[in-house]
Amino acid sequence: MESTRNLLIEILEKNKNNYISGEQMSKMLGISRTAVWKHMKELQKDGYEIEGISKKGYKITQFPSKVSVNTLQWGSKTKWLGKTLIHKHSTGSTQIIGHQLAVEGTPHGTVVVADVQTEGKGRFDRKWHSSNNKGIWMSIVLRPNLLPNQAPQITLLAATVIADVIKSKTGLSPNIKWPNDVLINNKKVSGILTEMQAEQDRIQYMVLGIGININQSVETLANDIKASATSLRIESTIEWNIRDLIQETLAHFEQAYDSFIDEGFSPIKSKWESYAYMIGQSVRIKTFKKETTAQLIGIKEDGALIIKNEDGSHESLYSAEIQW
Amino acid sequence: MLNMQEIQNLIKLIDESSIDEFTYESNGTKVSLRKQKGELVTAQPSFSPVPQTNKVSEQTAINAEPKEVPEDDGEQTTDFDYEIVSPMVGTFYAAPTPDKDDYVQIGDTVKSDTVVCIVEAMKLFNEIESEVSGEVVEILAENGELVEYGQPLFRVKAK
């Protein structure tokens, strides 16, 4: 059923500039014309607008912007990511659902998406504003066969994926602030928070939380973040289709993740560096009981931040508060 | 007492880790390892390490009479059975958030799946599970401290 619909969407997508007859589709899918018609009705319920003209056939006039399990899975280009997918209109935090599902044994690649999060969270329980249908609020459950100390590299990978999607879809020029905030014009457009359960030598699961501000306007962006945050709409003056951006993000993520597992971090490192924010510049860095000024040099083969201290010595940081 | 094989394994592990200095003491045998200029050298604490050497030598002061157990110092030696060590480099957090209670305190009973702390690196928050059952007898890291790969964080006594 699902796969028939996916095929149907593919066919319609390929023929979006011309009409395709019900008979052609029934032959291609190996189902009756009545069945094709029933599938079309289902697609329309989820926001696909299909024009039907007798003797000519059908044509998709509009793809859905509505986010649902159906619209996210139909037309999806992924092989394993988001095959188990949960969509909530409103929830406290997709991270919490991700954890619960992971504990219950949900498969690698499970995705949780919400239209609105009432308790979206950032680091140290800082609030993450996730307003209704204005952005991507999602969590991905991963079970990588890696050592726990390699896992942080996946958070840098996720940032490059988001930067890639923003760049290719909108033409804007994103930057990545170490380790994984995505900025446009010095303001934060996306944040990533990852939580992991691991033993000494084995990762049980990771829940990668992604927040991307998409369609907020200056007016609807929460007051306390107006100065430091932005959205794709503010930067581009265009409303974006959230459903498409989720699909695009998942497709890019799957590809980047698979190549990371096969080839290691090196390609991600180059990509990351091409987006790197403030490299070569000096910043204040706070680590445990120590605050210094240092120059940002780059990242190491494992994703750690390389800094140059005022005495000329180099140091790699895995965790620090940086005053950008 | 460590045998040659175990010492070689230790050297290999430390070489690959970000630990700069390592000391192990047991029944009068002491092994001290210290990395210098990217190389691994060994030295007894009272000697200054030989710089340019590439060779790793074993300098264990083995007592001729193994029965001569050194006198108990009576200090730091809290009786414990396990050490919970950090699986990665990062910041140690004793509590889930700054305004919440610590995950565990001395005297607490932990099970293998009890979360004892968080180690954060690159905004990845790793919840560390005890992996053993027993009583927490010592907490070796301070909230907010940077911890190394393999650094002991807690000591647990089996019950």
UniProtKB/TrEMBL annotation, chain A:
> What catalytic activity is recorded?
biotin + L-lysyl-[protein] + ATP = N(6)-biotinyl-L-lysyl-[protein] + AMP + diphosphate + H(+)
State a single Pfam family of this protein.
Answer: BPL_C
Q: Which residues form the BPL/LPL catalytic domain?
A: 63-261
Coiled coil start-end: none
Which UniProt keywords are given for this protein, alphabetically ordered? ATP-binding, Biotin, DNA-binding, Ligase, Nucleotide-binding, Repressor, Transcription, Transcription regulation
List, alphabetically, the PROSITE patterns matched.
BPL_LPL_CATALYTIC
Q: Which GO terms describe its biological process?
A: protein lipoylation; regulation of DNA-templated transcription
For this record, an example GO cellular component is: cytoplasm
Q: Does the keyword Repeat apply?
A: no
GO MF annotation terms? ATP binding; biotin--[biotin carboxyl-carrier protein] ligase activity; DNA binding; transferase activity
The enzyme's E.C. designation? 6.3.4.15
InterPro entries named among the record's database cross-references: aa-tRNA-synth_II/BPL/LPL, Bifunct_BirA, Biotin_CoA_COase_ligase, BPL_C, BPL_LPL_catalytic, HTH_11, WH-like_DNA-bd_sf, WH_DNA-bd_sf
DNA-binding region residue numbers: 22-41
**Record-annotated residues binding biotin?**
Q117, K188
**Per its UniProt record, what PANTHER family does this chain match?**
BIOTIN PROTEIN LIGASE (PTHR12835), BIOTIN--PROTEIN LIGASE (PTHR12835:SF5)
Known role: Acts both as a biotin--[acetyl-CoA-carboxylase] ligase and a repressor.
Q: Which family does it belong to?
A: Belongs to the biotin--protein ligase family.
UniProt protein name:
Bifunctional ligase/repressor BirA
This chain's source organism reads Aquibacillus halophilus
UniProtKB/TrEMBL annotation, chain B:
| InterPro entries found in the cross-reference section | AcCoA_biotinCC, Biotin_BS, Biotin_Carboxyl_Carrier/Decarb, Biotin_lipoyl, Single_hybrid_motif
Q: Could you tell me one molecular function GO term of this UniProt entry?
A: acetyl-CoA carboxylase activity
Tree of life domain: Bacteria
**All copies of domain Lipoyl-binding, residue ranges:** 81-157
Q: Which GO biological process entries does UniProt record here? A: fatty acid biosynthetic process
Which residues does the annotated region (Disordered) include?
A: 42-76
Keywords of the record, alphabetical order, are:
Biotin, Fatty acid biosynthesis, Fatty acid metabolism, Lipid biosynthesis, Lipid metabolism
Ranges of Polar residues composition bias in the record? 43-62
Q: Which Gene3D superfamilies match?
A: 2.40.50.100
User: What GO cellular component is one of the record's annotations?
Assistant: acetyl-CoA carboxylase complex
Keyword match Lipid metabolism: yes
Q: In which pathway does it act?
A: Lipid metabolism; fatty acid biosynthesis
Alphabetized NCBIfam families for the sequence? BCCP
Protein's job: This protein is a component of the acetyl coenzyme A carboxylase complex; first, biotin carboxylase catalyzes the carboxylation of the carrier protein and then the transcarboxylase transfers the carboxyl group to form malonyl-CoA.
Please give the name of this protein: Biotin carboxyl carrier protein of acetyl-CoA carboxylase
Q: Which organism is it from?
A: Aquibacillus halophilus
